[in-house]
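Sample pair:
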Amino acid sequence: MLKTLLIKDYALIENIEVEFGKGLNIITGETGAGKSILIDAMGLLLGERASSEIVRKGASKSIIEGIFDVQTNKKVKKLLEGNNIENNSELIVRREISLKGSNRCFLNDTPVTLNLIKEIGDLLVDLHGQHEHQSLLRSETHIEMLDGFINLDKHLAEFERLKNKLNGLLDEYKELQQKENLLKEKKEIYEFQIKEIDAVSPQAGEEKSLEDELKILENSEKLLELTNNIYNSLYEDENAIYDRIVEIKNNLNQLSSIDKVFLDRAGECESALTLLSDISGFVRSYKDKINLEPEKLDEIRSRLGAFNLLKKKYGGTIDSVIEHRKRIGREYELAENFSLKLNELGKEIDLVRIECGKAASALSAERKKVSSKIKIQIENELKNLGISSPNFEVKISQMKYEGNSAWHAVDSRYVIIGKEKFGYNERGIDEVEFFISTNLGEDPKPLIKVASGGEVSRIMLSLKLILAKSDRLPILIFDEIDTGVSGRIAQKVGNALKSLSSYHQIIAITHLPQIAGLADLHFTVEKVRHQDRVVSTIHKLKGNEKVKEVARLLSGENVTDTAIRSAKELMGIN
């Protein structure tokens, strides 16, 4: 919902701020008062191109700002998150157009591109009048409108799954094709590297183990000397430590027989003898295993030297050497079996093309099934809205694939249905366009070429009435919906807008009292004199002001009592 619209120094507008509400928001005013300027400014806010000529005389820039309630708009939230823009329940959209021609755009005070503003605008508002933003005049939107009549979520999800799978396989195939020549060039290099690494065949953790073993072997003489010294000092020498402590223990035993205080010390001496016995046993066992093996030493040094050469060439560590060997092994195997791999992948692609084609056919069938029903409903609505002889058609065609379908061109984007090939996009293989004739006897032609502004608005109103709950654009703005409409038809157009306002926020400019009388919120635009300048202002009407404005639309500038009574009757006021 559009909560607030702020316009500063734009054309005849000096500074206005409008607070819109839910339901049907009506804008009225004299011809030339500036009603359409509001809609033009709204178009700029939604991403239309701007010229510095719109800057009000005497000002340096124009500012248009809108505050939207986007709490339930998941698509807007996703787009904001994808562009790293603060995501709140409210979205502030602002554009600044300067006299120098510079154009600045902001979303929640974050500078953005005009294209992003337009993307956001497409998710917020459908603006109907002489504007680029009119979705009905963009044939690419027709398929989305058609799909809005049907619950295609399940079919679209299945097609998207298969389409993504197909695209992934096609990308993989293309990558393989591009890789083939490169791998052929590198095959000999990979073969040499594989042989070089496999000749050494380093294992994970082996280098550390060899370095530890090398350290021991390089110090074997020192180890033998030191362990001999320890063992002899503990056990073998004439005054060995073990024998000295045995003598001390015996003396302690004699002392303890005289004075019991020596008993604990004699026990501790016994423990020391046990510990010394363990140490001497370990040292003796270790020194008996020491071998002076110069051949083994040379072997380890040689292997570690080979490791170092590999490390210098392939990444600096043995782990990186091992990882490099795995990678080039895969590449070499692929180069050896390229034709086989491409053939297998090509067959898988064709199978998925067929699956994807079935899912696309299911989408097409659902669209064809509902198109005749839509034709009848829209034609009936158009008759109610004053187009007496409408002929509305939904043309559904398929994107025939005309590219290279030779076997080797497997990377081409198409699906297979029967014996035919079709191009595709995110919604399947269909192209949808609305055709219409609004005059008896004329053949329907593309809607974007034949309908006038007022007719387009009424056609869109018909579509929206049928879509109602399923349509996801929350705000609809109508500028020319009452063109060529009066009397009984005007009442029907008003009732249609009122009905639609139960599901959407409607902002409509009108000259017709039958439409204005149904407003939930009513605004009037007028020109006033301000400091020797004419400016456009907008005023929210309350109570009797609304009645008087509807009466003015009925009778002109001289509002009579009869016009007041008629206005109240039209508005359902007693």
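The first strand starts at residue 2 and ends at 10.
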